[in-house]
Amino acid sequence: MPALPLDQLQITHKDPKTGKQRTSPALHPEQKADRYFVLYKPPPKDNIPALVEEYLERATFVVNDLDWLLALPHDKFWCQVIFDETLQKCLDSYLHHVPRKFDEWVAPTPEVADIQKHLHRSVFLTFLRMSTHKESKDHFISPAAFGEILYNNFLFDIPKILDLCVLFGKGNAPLLQKMIGNIFIQQPSYYNDLDETMPTILQVFSNILQHCGLQGEGASSMPQKLEEKGRLTPSDMPLLELKDVVLYLCDTCTTLWAFLDIFPLACQTFQKHDFCYRLASFYEVAIPEMESAIKKRRLEDSKLLSDLWQRLSHSKKKLMDVFHIILNQICLLPILESSCDNIQGFVEEFLQIFSSLLQEKRFLRDYDTLFPVAGDISLLQQASSVLDETRTAYILQAVESAWEGVDRRKDTKDTSMAEDHNWDSNGVMVTVEPASQGPSQLENSEEEKCMGAAAALGPSVSGVELDSLISQVKDLLPDLGEGFILACLEHYHYDPEQVINNILEERLAPTLSQLDRSLDRQVKPDPTPLLTSRHNVFQNDEFDVFSRDSVDLSRVHKGRRKEGNTRSLLNDKSAVVAQRQRYEQYSVVVEEVVLQPGDYPGDDYEDEYDDTYDGNQVGANDADSDDELISRRPFTIPQVLRSKAPGEGQEEEEDEEEEEAENEAPKPDHFVQDPAVLREKAEARRMAFLARKGYRHDSSTAVAGSPRGHGQSRETTQERRKKEASKATRANHNRRTMADRKRNKGMIPS
What we know:
The chain is mainly alpha-helical. It contains 29 helices and two strands. It has helices spanning 49-70, 74-83, 85-97, 110-130, 143-152, 158-168, 173-186, 189-211, 239-262, 267-272, 275-296, 302-337, 344-355, 361-370, 373-383, 389-402, 464-476, 482-491, 496-504, 510-513, 530-533, 566-571, 574-584, 626-630, 648-664, 675-693, 701-704, 714-725, 735-744; strands at 10-14, 21-25. A two-stranded antiparallel ribbon has the order 1-2. Mean pLDDT is 78; it is low at 216-221 and 410-459.
């Protein structure tokens, strides 16, 4: 007799109340065991002993409960799964809180790692058994009833399936593919659920754009509310907020890629909502802004910035993979598998997708770097004889135009990007990666950075341009030596983005991995040193330390030199004396001319000689007497021995004033008077005039103070403050006050 499916099976058991035998369905709430499944909590991040002990105790409870559940027979297992709500809450809490591979985590203790590995395996086996409708010939559920059980009891839904792909996809891909494929086959309603979930998935991209203040679809039609704060761009938002956005993007991209990689049949549902165009549009707007925001924050936390850059590169790679999976599933694979008569629709779909992306140049560059578009079009040309060459040529031309101004580097493309994913499959054994796995070890060969945006510089980079490239890498990775960075730049054709990405992901070439990362840069000797090739006005002067060993420091003065007054400066004739020797060489200045015997100086022309009165005979006709020639001057009493006459005192005072006036008068040889002396005399005349008029000069010499640059005394500061406060007591500063006073007294009609 063939065995009945579990949904039709009836069992006979003793009624605990009446003690009589009765028959009931095998799937009945009474068959459920009374057991409480505790909720899962993630491991502590700080490895605090008390928290670690609490986690180990809770995880042990969960592991024991799941192991007990897996050991139940087929009917008991399904009764517990269907009717025990605490079991579903426990499984949901694990999917929600367990650390992902790309999460930040501190290295756990060995005990935590072991219990986490055991728990990871038990959860996967539980979901695997829940998705299997036939365990053996005698223990199975009919497919129709199995689909209804899964769907009506919410044992699986789209969010759970997405989490399962992220957590268990690597290392268990074959089992997970059979598991999810069986769920969608037995219950096609999940396709409808996925179709209804797509707007929510697309809303994630819109939320990221809106949070970053970028123009997304529908943003122009929804004006910003008055009470809503202005949205910050990625370059302006705080670093921690930027970190949240990047982590959110990384989680979204990884989840979508894991789901489509495990279950490619969902690509048709994705493309119904024009997912390829939405993804490319989001990539074109958001990714360059986030890259620029991370590059500009060079002075902030370098470790965090390196982690964000690595996660953003990982997100870019996953977005490209998602686009390629969809394109390959809905266009390329059907072309390869179909006959020549049925491929025209798929070719048209391919051309339509790329025709809608021609304006997304950044996306086209990065996608063409990983998956060359020319190769796909070549496949279409081989498969279809009626391919529209005009459209294909237009698409290829658009891809080429996207590379304008950027070095394509087809020949130097990193071959690791074309490697297949190296999955580990060990039966039902789950390949558990420790939650402490650092971001630099994120999925190893999968985490390739998307190339294409950064232009590769030619091999002739040197000088300031090379220093700028080294500084760009060193700002994000300050612990590296300049010599090591230079070697990496030379190997990767002076592409700093590729160097940074390969260092962070530990994917350097073997020759670079063996180098010392603290290697300093060796300075190459310049064939034309700067000192020997310099030419300027200060070369070889008395202060040129490059051309002489000793410099007269007495002539070097720091700050403003305190020179003497103007009179001493004018009296200093040292410059004249210094120039005298120079002019003596030209025989222009001669103090005395020595005449040799027989020479007559009158023959020489004398320009300074005055010959005006040479024709007058002076004294020729005078009658000179001998007495006049020999007579002496009469005796005169010295003035100091004379007795003063009554009016002589006034005459002497007048004479003294005249002498002073004569002394004050400019001397004929002083054709330029001292300006300081002139100012002193003018000040004295002004003060004398004010004194005669009765004005009192209340200004103090302290107001003037010392020369600028020498500081001011306390007295000067006080006098200046007093002058500023009392300047309104004279002149026209109190006109308004006096006018108000007159008006108040009635002197002026108002």
